[in-house]
Each structure stands twice: as structure tokens, then as C-alpha cells.
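Q: what sequence does this backbone want?
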């Protein structure tokens, strides 16, 4: 049994790319919410931070209307009655292209915990959270967040899309930390991603995350520990994965205007057996079990999960023991199969500064849990990723980072085919 003297309030962090949910709310929304409620019932957290990406879906001009329904269902649910304070920040203003990120941060505070405050970034002071409030159409009128869309210069060969971050700051029983929702750039083409390691997309993501980290280090606000969680779009070393999968295969190329559009790898011992087919948005392996391994854990793929390593002087992560969180089938009847579009990857992550880890209890019976929601049901193309932990107890837990954080980025050694 957990010792109440050694652990503090339970905190649940969730990152969820909801793009698929808003594309088909009639079928997916209730399934998603049911698994969300089940997770809260099982873990009984005192404070919940839900960070959403792609609010309103890919066709947000049409689907943004469903965001209000999503919020209403949560706010009015009997299953959420014990959370008497809720604060939602939803970036819905797609008509303001230079600021629109489609990010949503929702925070729930349990009635049993009293000393909870949010930070006013304009007044530079903490304020008590009260009632249930939605900031959506009037997001610019509140000062409880720090938000930015990545500069247009970060999209040299891509459309200026909904990528950026929203940061909030909290004090829970005098433990102060930031919670950052982030959405980084995706891989537009498998054919480009496989050519080099790191790929151009990986470099763009690193540049964007560097930008955010340096911004936090240089701004006027006190430096505190932080948790940064969202859709990082981190991908595996695609080149390395493919080379491993097709080590005993012969490629056949389809070209258009001298550009390779398609590669079909056939087994050396059988001219008719196709092992892997690649295209811009095609990643079709003959036997998915070869990719995912025993128990669908895909453990061998961790060797190729290199992107987070660039930041490990500042950021850390609990052991990843769940399958890749993307790209799952959007078939409502299928919760376990990956789509044949991209190499599966751990896109959705919860990272934290080393200072933030000192806030987390490692007491027996209260150890952190890092996993996913809805592993066996359709939750859209992304599985929500969660980190549940207990804050450490006692006055020693009043923790802020002291002085400036010194950030030393790691530089990849580049390889190419």
C-alpha cells in the first residue's frame, strides 16, 4: 500500500493528436472519451493535463464545429464531476493564419486538492484557478499561456502549417513547473526520409525544438522545471530500418522524369515475393510481424529511435515500453493494425527536464507509469500517450531550477545511401 507520507498529489499528463477524431466524430469521439474516462477512473489523478494537437482535424474549416461538442461532453460528464476546476485553452481561430496552431490544452483539478494556481504571463504572478472556463474564441484576451507558431522561415519547402507550442505554468502545493504542448513537422515523403540520416525533416524538427528551448532559456520569466509533451513527429532512422528489412532483397525502381517514385523490394530467392513497397506515402511490408516483432512491441526498432538523443543533455524520458504510437488504422473496427503509409514511429512523447524529474516520487507503489490509452481499440491514427506520477511530498518539494539552463545540443553524424 502506498505511503501517504512519502507521496503527494497524483498527476496525469496526456498527449493526444485528435485529427482523426474530428474527421469522424460520429464514430470515434465516444470511443475516445470512453477510454479517457476509464483511464481517469483507473489512475485517480488529482491533476490532469490533456494536450491536444490538430484540434478540429485536417479539414478544420469544416470540422472545427465539433470542438465545442467535444468540450461540452467532457465538461458536462458525470464522470468528471469530482473535477470542480477546469481550464481549457483551444486555438480555434484558423482565420488568423499567422497565429493558428490548432493546439488545445485542457487542465482538470480534483476537488480534493486545494492549493493549485496558474501563472499569469503578463502580470508575472500566480492566480488561483476557480470554476470551469473555456478560452477559445477569445484566446488572445487571456494571459495564462505563452504561445507561438513557428516562423514561416522554418518551412522552406513546405506550406506554413499549424505547428507551434502553447506553454502554461502551474503551482501545485508549491511545486512549480511548466507544461508545454508542442507539435513539430511531419515527414512529407518516405522517399526523401530514407535518403539520409538524419533526414531533412529530422533536421527541421531539431531546429524547431532548439528554438523553443532557447526561447524559454532567454525569456523574462523565472526558470522552472518543465514537461514538454505533444506530437513531436519524431521518426525512426528510416534509412536504417529499410536497410535492415531488405538486406536480402533486390530493389526495382519506378521513375518519372528521372525521379524515383516507387521502389519494390523482392526476395533474392523468389522473383515473385515482394518484401517491401515504398512510395511517397507508401510503406507496405509483406509481413508486419517482421516489423513489430514478438508481442507487437517492436523492441528492435528502439535502436533506430534516434531523434530524442539530440536533447538528452536537457530532456529525459521514462522507458518507452509501448508500441509505436503512429500511424494506426482509422478503421473503427481495427485498433491494432498500422496503416501502410509510414514506418511506425514513436511520434507522441512526454519529455521532461532533469530538474522536473526531481519533482516525481519514486516511492514503492507510486512509481511513474508511461504508456498509451486504448491500445486495443481505434483511437484514430495516433494513440494517446500518458505519464502518470506522484509528486514528492514535503517542503523539500518546493522546487525551481536555479540559474540558467545550459543547453549543449548533440550533432548527428550524417550517413547517406
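A:
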Amino acid at each position: 500500500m502506498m505511503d501517504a507520507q512519502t507521496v503527494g498529489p497524483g498527476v496525469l499528463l496526456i498527449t493526444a493528436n485528435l485529427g482523426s477524431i474530428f474527421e469522424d466524430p460520429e464514430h470515434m469521439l465516444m470511443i475516445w472519451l470512453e477510454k479517457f474516462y476509464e483511464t481517469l477512473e483507473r489512475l485517480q489523478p488529482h491533476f490532469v493535463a490533456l494536450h491536444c494537437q490538430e484540434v478540429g482535424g485536417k479539414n478544420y474549416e469544416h470540422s472545427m464545429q465539433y470542438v465545442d461538442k467535444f468540450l461540452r461532453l467532457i465538461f458536462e460528464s458525470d464522470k468528471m464531476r469530482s473535477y470542480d476546476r477546469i481550464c481549457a485553452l483551444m486555438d480555434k481561430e484558423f482565420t488568423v493564419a499567422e497565429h493558428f496552431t490548432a493546439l488545445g490544452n485542457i487542465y482538470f483539478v480534483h476537488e480534493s486538492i486545494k492549493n493549485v494556481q496558474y501563472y499569469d504571463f503578463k502580470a508575472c504572478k500566480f492566480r488561483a484557478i476557480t470554476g470551469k472556463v473555456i478560452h477559445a474564441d477569445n484566446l488572445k484576451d487571456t494571459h495564462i499561456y505563452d504561445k507561438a507558431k513557428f516562423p514561416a522561415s522554418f518551412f522552406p519547402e513546405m506550406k506554413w502549417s499549424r505547428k507551434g507550442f502553447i506553454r502554461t505554468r502551474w503551482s501545485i502545493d508549491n511545486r512549480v513547473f511548466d507544461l508545454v504542448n508542442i507539435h513539430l513537422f511531419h515527414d512529407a515523403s518516405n522517399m526523401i526520409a530514407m535518403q539520409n540520416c538524419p533526414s531533412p525533416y529530422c533536421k527541421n524538427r531539431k531546429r524547431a525544438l532548439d528554438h523553443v528551448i532557447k526561447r524559454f532559456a532567454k525569456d523574462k520569466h523565472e526558470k522552472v522545471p518543465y514537461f514538454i509533451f505533444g506530437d513531436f513527429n519524431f521518426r525512426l532512422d528510416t534509412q536504417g530500418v529499410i536497410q535492415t528489412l531488405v538486406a536480402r532483397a533486390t530493389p526495382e525502381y519506378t521513375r518519372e522524369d528521372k525521379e524515383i517514385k516507387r521502389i519494390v523490394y523482392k526476395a533474392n530467392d523468389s522473383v515473385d515475393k515482394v518484401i517491401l513497397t515504398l512510395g511517397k506515402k507508401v510503406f507496405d511490408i509483406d509481413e508486419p510481424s517482421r516489423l513489430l516483432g514478438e508481442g507487437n512491441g517492436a523492441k528492435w526498432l528502439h535502436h533506430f529511435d534516434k531523434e530524442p538523443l539530440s536533447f538528452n543533455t536537457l530532456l529525459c524520458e521514462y522507458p518507452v515500453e509501448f508500441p509505436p504510437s503512429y500511424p494506426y488504422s482509422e478503421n473503427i473496427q481495427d485498433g491494432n493494425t498500422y496503416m501502410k503509409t509510414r514506418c511506425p514511429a514513436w511520434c507522441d512523447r512526454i519529455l521532461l527536464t532533469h530538474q522536473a524529474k526531481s519533482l516525481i516520487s519514486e516511492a514503492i507503489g507510486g512509481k511513474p507509469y508511461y504508456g498509451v490509452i486504448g491500445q486495443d481499440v481505434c483511437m484514430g491514427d495516433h494513440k494517446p500517450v500518458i505519464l502518470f506520477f506522484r509528486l514528492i511530498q514535503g517542503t523539500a518539494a518546493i522546487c525551481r531550477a536555479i540559474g540558467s539552463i545550459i543547453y549543449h545540443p548533440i550533432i548527428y553524424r550524417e550517413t547517406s545511401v
